[in-house]
Amino acid sequence: MHATVGDEIQVHGRTVGSAEQRGEILEVRGEDGAPPYLVRFADGHEGLVFPGPDCEVLSRTE
């Protein structure tokens, strides 16, 4: 997975009925765009994200 600051990350719900979460990548802490990412989610909280298979990064240029 590769990301840059300003990209959006989507975390898809893992169980039926759980909501998808979206957030803006504020900081890339891995080398060459690799995780972990510091993310600000739509509800305002920030957290360090180590994306799994239920995540995707949407480039800000898309």
TrEMBL record:
Region (Disordered): 1-23
Domain DUF1918: 1-57
InterPro entries named among the record's database cross-references: DUF1918
Protein name: DUF1918 domain-containing protein
Record Pfam families: DUF1918 (PF08940)
Top-level taxon in the UniProt lineage: Bacteria
Source taxonomy: Bacteria, Bacillati, Actinomycetota, Actinomycetes, Pseudonocardiales
N-terminal signal peptide: none
Transmembrane portions of the chain: none
